[in-house]
Write a structure and sequence with these properties.
The complex is a heterotrimer. By secondary structure, chain A is of the alpha/beta class. Chain A is 31% helix and 22% strand. In chain A, strand 4 and strand 5 form a beta hairpin. Chain B is globular, with a radius of gyration of 21 Å. The termini of chain B are far apart. Chain C is an all-alpha fold. Chain C has a domain of 189 residues: MetI-like fold (Orthogonal Bundle). The chains are: A alpha/beta, B alpha/beta, C mainly alpha. Chains B and C meet through loops of B and helix 1 of C.
């Protein structure tokens, strides 16, 4: 079975099937991701959106096998990552990369930029020092930094935006196929955010990347994504092509996320009385549809039956009883 | 330069006059805030917008008299007829709470991790309003309910780490509001929060501000946050205010290229996916090495030789109540982008 | 974020060399350590008298041209004894923490990085070691194996392991949560590479600072052991045993106890100052001092 939203033409580069990630928290089981299926086609950018604690970062890390999934399969380019062990997984890692939210924390404060960006090459066994230096220079220039100026410096000498450029350089130096961007611009100012988003788009074209772009802000996701998946409390609510999702959100939760974006226009009065409150604790998710406690359109059935993911027209898929 | 705001009918509650803040750093003196004038009438909301390092936080600290010890403050911070900079610590302490209150970006650091929420609210109420414990507990519960915290009685007994970020920020707001301040300074109150929670917290602040007829300063890096929720906006760049206008006027007609660029950099909901964002190139200047001309000139697409040579003053040549500091202001209404809702 | 705001101000401008701001106290401390260290190393070739030659005619003499710092109760030259005493104090003082830091750092980093059962085992073992009465342990070892410099070093070194383990584990624990460690894992780095290349450079500086404090403590502990007669046996001089011997004649020749005490005080203070300064420098950001 292929994920909802489906591969568009050929085999998807990444496919996640019935993925569940659980943790033990103080004797209870926290199900951070439960039964999520997704596919990302080659060269595609899939945006993954949800509030904090919805499991979107856990999903990203489970794809990379940084957290081992409890159940389900992750297939990358025909190889089942969930079955790979030790050395085989380590070798696979150079094809999948990760960019973090906090660019400063994700750089070792005691190593020079040149060292940090060369590290992936050393790990993957590029022995020739001149070759490593050439590739580090190339990738640093590609992300808009002057290699000669930055190579000898330490991370604390750079601003957040520049550190994120360095992180992107480190992720790209091995020329991976899939890059998971975990809230790459949430910690940055609006002005710097635009620079980094543009850079990611440039890099995607230049290196032919496939991106899984995780964020809590739909407006940011819109700028870069081909399709968007919306997550709530560990489950998928909606997967739709970007244009359609923004034009006509299918799931009430998607609509809520859209309404919450502050518009830079004083003539549009901000929406008040947004679906009140915050997500319930993932330790004890509500029965039925997990969103029903905040959903303005909740019906009786929503409190009892968990809606399955169902396809709609235009390549959309939604998990909501409104479409029964 | 007088700091009186157009549109403000009554005398200003707060008036900041020629305020500058200098910090010693290993690389020399850093002029974080440079000759800022502002005024805020009772019950009005002022948005201060700027990038990281533009001095907006230091300006708010100067207003609150919460500057680091090594900082040097110039100018006057007139609040209710008194210059806060000249007050002794005890008088200042008595102002905090009933007159001046603050909400910070990270509620985890502004709440004491080893005390329950209840203890922290009750202590504030007892210290400033002299309530007895029972009244304070009751009032605290009411306050938590007012800021939209479900089951407030239970929450009073919980510790900050047991609450989500949004809930903690609500508690911080409840504590700030507990003594009915005349001025609330909210320093990036929603930057660390989810978009949905951000909307709720901003709504809460706006609602309480109107209900209590409280003046508010809302500091943010996002023009989207101030658009619907402030009466007036001041845009800061490199320690100075570069444009100031009533909010509708500002969004209808921006004069300063920096403001325009800041707005353009926000991802738009109505543009197609994969549209390149008009990012502001480069980065703000090093504040320890002030430029001779306009600080924004190196990043500005309209800049010419004059901008690099001479610093434009914050002036209001049209008497429109909307001063700006620019040699080449944008003229005419903006058409480069339009706002629309999804 | 607030963090970014501070960082943004300092970006891409060469940081001021922190050494310029270290101050005179730090330099004085380093000078004293170098002076004592050189004297101890070169004691054999320095033109000083033997520390064990008795001169019963010149007992408890105040400082003079023949004996710059006077003589002790057996007429031995005080300066010479202080310098040879420094040999023992510094040997034990430096070697014992080396044992502690090398074993403690390994255990602590392994515990902090791998967690789980290994951590429980290491922490448990360290707790047992910590609970063992140190004096009884020292007595037992010296009684069975003899009162040699090596044995004393070993005893103090092993007793220091728990402290170093705890510091290393705490630092590693907090660093392992940082994204740069996750980033290295995501890149496919092996555990040993992460431990050596990513964690060790960050754990090392706090440990070096703590090591210097350990040196100071060890000098005092060695002095206390010698004072109690558990240290290096006579006639070899050690600051601690000199204080112990000088105690008997505090009323008539107070310098016999005070001079070694002063040397010990200055050395301990110097190591503490250097250690504290290094700890302040641990933070790679400018202005952290």
């Amino acid at each position: 079975m292929s994920g909802p939203g489906g591969p568009r033409s050929d085999e998807p580069l990444l496919s996640v099937q019935h993925l569940t990630v659980e943790y033990a928290v103080g004797g209870k089981t926290l199900s951070a991701v439960s039964d999520v299926s997704l596919a990302v086609g080659r060269g595609e950018t899939l945006g993954l959106v949800g509030e904090s604690g919805c499991g979107k970062s856990t999903l990203g890390r489970a794809v990379l096998q940084l957290n081992r999934p409890t159940a389900g399969k992750v297939t990358f380019d025909g190889t089942e990552l969930t079955k790979l062990e030790g050395e085989a997984m380590r070798l696979m890692r150079r094809r999948l990369q990760l960019i973090f939210q906090d660019p400063i924390a994700s750089l070792n404060p005691r190593r020079s930029i040149g060292d940090i960006v060369a590290e992936p090459l050393i790990i993957s066994g590029v022995k020739d020092k001149a070759e490593r230096e050439r590739r580090v220079r190339d990738v640093l220039s590609a992300v808009g930094l002057d290699p000669d100026q930055v190579r000898g410096r330490l991370p604390h000498e750079f601003s957040g935006g520049q550190c994120q450029r360095i992180c992107i350089a480190r992720a790209l130096v091995l020329e991976p196929e899939l890059v998971i961007c975990d809230e790459p611009v949430s910690a940055l100012d609006v002005s710097i955010r635009a620079q980094i988003l543009n850079l990611l788009e440039d890099m995607k074209r230049r290196y032919g990347l496939t991106l899984l772009f995780i964020a809590h802000d739909l407006a940011v996701v819109k700028a870069v994504s081909d399709r968007v998946a919306v997550m709530y409390l560990g489950r998928l609510c909606e997967v739709s092509p970007t244009e359609q999702l923004f034009a006509k959100p299918a799931h009430p939760y998607t609509a809520l996320l859209l309404e919450a974006i502050p518009l830079p226009d004083p003539t549009v009065k901000p929406a008040t009385n947004l679906a009140v409150g915050e997500p319930p604790s993932p330790l004890s998710p509500p029965p039925g549809c997990r969103f029903h406690t905040r959903c303005p359109k909740a019906m009786d059935v929503c409190r009892q039956v968990d809606p399955p993911m169902r396809p709609l027209d235009g390549g959309r898929a939604v998990a909501c009883h409104l479409y029964d | 330069m007088s700091g009186v705001v157009s549109g403000a009918v009554s005398a200003p509650l707060l008036s900041v006059e020629g305020v500058a803040v200098e910090l010693p750093t290993p690389r020399g003196r850093l002029r974080a805030v440079d000759k800022v004038d502002l005024a805020l009438a009772p019950g009005r909301t002022l948005g201060i917008v700027g990038e990281s390092g533009c001095g907006k936080t230091m300006l708010s600290r100067a207003i609150l008299q919460l500057l680091p010890k090594r900082a040097r403050l110039e100018g006057r911070v007139m609040f209710g007829g008194r210059d806060l900079a000249t007050l002794d610590p005890e008088s200042l302490r008595r102002l905090r709470g009933p007159e001046l209150a603050v909400v910070f970006q990270d509620p985890m650091t502004s709440l004491n991790p080893v005390l329950t929420i209840g203890t922290q609210i009750i202590e504030t109420l007892q210290a400033h309003l002299g309530m007895d414990a029972t009244t304070a507990f009751k009032r605290g519960t009411e306050l938590l309910a007012a800021v939209g915290i479900p089951a407030p009685g239970q929450r009073m007994r919980q510790y900050p780490h047991q609450l989500s970020g949004g809930m903690r920020q609500r508690v911080a707001i409840a504590i700030a509001l507990s003594c009915e301040p005349k001025l609330l300074v909210a320093d990036e109150p929603t930057t660390a929060l989810d978009v949905t929670v951000q909307a709720q917290i901003l709504d809460l602040l706006a609602r309480e501000q109107q209900r209590r007829h409280m003046a508010m300063i809302l500091i943010t890096h996002d023009l989207g946050v101030v658009a619907g929720r402030t009466d007036e906006v001041a845009v800061m760049y490199a320690g100075r205010i570069v444009e100031r206008a009533p909010t509708p006027a500002l969004f209808a007609r921006m004069r300063m290229p920096y403001t325009e660029a800041l707005l353009a950099a926000i991802p738009k909901l109505d543009s197609a996916p994969h549209t390149a964002l008009p990012a502001i190139p480069g980065r703000p200047p090093d504040p320890t090495r002030p430029l001779p001309g306009c600080s924004f000139a190196p990043r500005c697409r309209y800049a010419d030789e004059l901008c690099g040579r001479a610093k434009p003053a914050l002036e209001d040549p049209d008497d429109a109540g909307a001063p700006y500091a620019c040699w080449h202001p944008i003229s005419g209404a903006r058409t480069s982008w339009s706002a629309s809702s999804p | 974020m607030a963090v970014l705001e501070i960082e943004g101000d300092t970006a891409l401008v060469s940081p001021v060399r922190k050494r310029h701001r270290l101050g005179g106290l730090f330099l004085a401390a380093v000078a004293w350590i170098v002076l004592i260290g050189l004297a101890a190393i070169l004691a054999g070739v320095l033109p000083i008298q033997s520390p064990t030659d008795l001169d019963m005619l010149a007992r408890r003499e105040p400082p003079s041209a023949a004996h710059w710092l006077g003589t002790d109760q057996l007429g031995r030259d005080m300066l010479s004894r202080l310098i040879y005493g420094a040999r023992i104090s510094l040997t034990v003082g430096l070697l014992a923490p080396v044992i502690g830091v090398s074993i403690g750092a390994c255990l602590g980093m392994l515990a902090g990085y791998f967690r789980g059962r290994l951590e429980a085992f290491i922490v448990g073992g360290v707790d047992v070691l910590l609970a063992f009465p140190p004096l009884v342990f020292a007595l037992a070892v010296t009684a069975y194996l003899g009162q040699t410099v090596l044995n004393i070093t070993l005893v103090i070194g092993i007793l220091g392991i728990p402290a170093f383990t705890r510091v290393a584990r705490a630092v590693t624990l907090s660093l392992s949560q940082r994204e740069f460690v996750v980033a290295a894992r995501a890149l496919g780095a092996t555990d040993s590479r992460i431990l050596v290349r990513e964690l060790l450079p960050n754990v090392a500086l706090p440990l070096v600072a703590f090591f210097l404090l350990g040196v100071a403590v060890t000098i005092v502990v060695e002095g206390a052991l010698s004072f109690l007669g558990l240290g290096v046996p006579p006639p070899a001089p050690s600051w601690g045993s000199m204080i112990g011997e000088g105690r008997e004649s505090l009323d008539i020749a107070p310098w016999l106890a005070f001079l070694p005490a002063l040397f010990m005080f200055l050395s301990v203070l110097s190591f503490n100052i250097v250690g504290d300064t290094l700890r302040a420098l641990t933070d790679p950001r400018p202005g952290a001092l």
